[in-house]
Amino acid sequence: MGTSSGFTLYIEDRAGKGYSALRQATEKLVELANQSWVLMDVYIDGLAEGISVSLNVDREKAEAFGVSFDDISQAISAASGSYYVNDYTDNGRVQQVIVQADTAYRMQLTDLLKVSVKNKTGEMVPLSAFVTAAWAQTPRQLNRYQGYPALKVTGSAAPGESSGAAMAEMERLASELPQGFKAEWAGSSLQEKESTAQLPCLFCSLSWSYLWCWPRFMKAGQRLWL
């Protein structure tokens, strides 16, 4: 077993249940882990959730108004942040053209919905005709591990416990995760797990080499003695 007491693993959402379900399952696992006498300092490693704007685009309505999704995306980008248009040359130097709404017109959530988008016939349609907006609690960081949405969990073994014992305890607790979620080791913890799994094969290989070589060594020794 390893001498380092720290461990790292990811909780993967393999069933596409969504971030909220993934967060809830991981928080429950961390809660159980911190109640175990084998483990300590177990936590979700990453940025906490924050307040952001959730936009819901009704694509059927947008299509009925003759507005493409790309045009909607560009309008929202320009209004809430900035949008690159093109370059131009000024006195021999290349300058970028960046479109951005003035500060006074992007301070409130309702300001965003007042932005208009040109449709296929050249008419201006406000975003409020097919976009709804609301404040929401959302993740500020989205991780993936082995292609699946995942949350990173780190922790340590309690004093007097090895990393192997801590990893075994985490595996026991992770076996109680809801269906669709799976724990996978990462970093040095994954290397330790793989090396530990190879120990029986290495032992068998050494034992076979010993049994194969020892009779020949004894015969050679006998001949040398004679």
TrEMBL record:
It comes from the Bacteria. One of its GO terms (cellular component) is plasma membrane. Gene3D superfamilies: Multidrug efflux transporter AcrB pore domain (3.30.70.1440), Multidrug efflux transporter AcrB TolC docking domain, DN and DC subdomains (3.30.2090.10). Signal peptide: none annotated. SUPFAM superfamilies: Multidrug efflux transporter AcrB pore domain, PN1, PN2, PC1 and PC2 subdomains, Multidrug efflux transporter AcrB TolC docking domain, DN and DC subdomains. One of its GO terms (molecular function) is xenobiotic transmembrane transporter activity. PANTHER family: EFFLUX PUMP MEMBRANE TRANSPORTER, PTHR32063. This is Probable efflux pump membrane transporter TtgB. It comes from Serratia plymuthica. The lineage of its organism: Bacteria, Pseudomonadati, Pseudomonadota, Gammaproteobacteria, Enterobacterales.
